[in-house]
Write a structure and sequence with these properties.
250 residues, 3 helices, 23% strand, Immunoglobulin-like
Length: 250
């Protein structure tokens, strides 16, 4: 639609409103019809400036729309959709077993599963990076290497009933920083992961951290429960600077 005249119904490229707009602007700038240069040159230059600004605005709008689409898009793939919009009218919580049933759509008899290689920090501090390693094991605990690679990703869920997946913070940023998706056959190492929300305002003050394979029919997900995220720890390891002996008597 035309951006120069709100009453014009023609497309911007087909109407002459931009010429009328330019003429009115020139009249306002030079009320006595005095132009410092040839009027046609000034008019042509002014129109070109308006067109350039219009293209810039269009590009900004397109870029903004693309960014918003990426932010609102779901980052996970092949993850069963849980009911995220049902209000939590009760204070009941979801158990680890219930969450597993939801994630695997009731199929929890897989012969393979994901297991932590090492414990993760407890508590975790907001915005502080930590490492998470998970491996594929069979029912006897032996490490298994698959014949083909699978995708494994990290997800956060609340303990509400039903549980809610956390994707963004209240400020619109991703709640987890770092590479939260890895492909592999046996061992999956997430070297630098950080969580950008504290958990004190969630139910029970803790969350579920899920290591979720895309093929959950083959490999059972790993659910780490009671994940607590606190505000960044004060630098208690640095003692206060001692006064020099001569300063003590100043």
């Amino acid at each position: 639609m035309c951006i120069y005249n709100p009453l014009c119904q023609e497309k911007e490229e087909l109407c002459n409103c931009k010429n009328d707009f330019a003429s009115k602007m020139l009249s306002a700038m030079y009320p006595n019809n005095y132009y410092p240069y040839n009027s046609s040159i000034v008019l042509r230059s002014f129109i070109q400036t308006c067109q350039a600004q219009t293209e810039t605005i269009k590009n900004i709008f397109s870029l903004t729309s693309e960014i918003l689409d990426k932010i609102s898009a779901k980052p996970q793939r092949n993850v069963p959709a849980l009911n995220m919009n049902v209000p939590n009218e009760s204070h009941s919580s979801t158990s680890r077993t219930e969450l597993m049933n939801l994630l695997c759509e009731g199929k929890t008899n897989q012969m393979l599963s994901l297991k932590l290689e090492h414990d993760i920090p407890s508590p975790i501090y907001k915005d502080r990076f930590f490492k998470l390693e998970a491996k594929i094991v069979d029912t006897s605990g032996q490490i298994i290497e698959l014949s083909s690679r699978i995708l494994v990703q990290l997800l956060l869920y609340t303990k509400d009933s039903p549980p809610k997946q956390l994707i963004l913070t209240t400020t619109g940023e991703k709640i987890m920083k770092g590479n939260t998706e890895i492909e592999g056959k046996s061992l999956f190492v997430f070297n630098k992961i950080a969580i950008q929300n504290v958990t004190s305002h969630y139910l029970s003050g803790a969350l579920y951290l899920v290591v979720m394979p895309d093929n959950y029919n083959l490999v059972k997900p790993l659910i780490i429960e009671d994940v607590v995220v606190k505000a960044r720890k004060m630098k208690e390891d640095f003692p206060m600077k001692k006064l020099k002996s001569e300063d003590a008597f100043d």
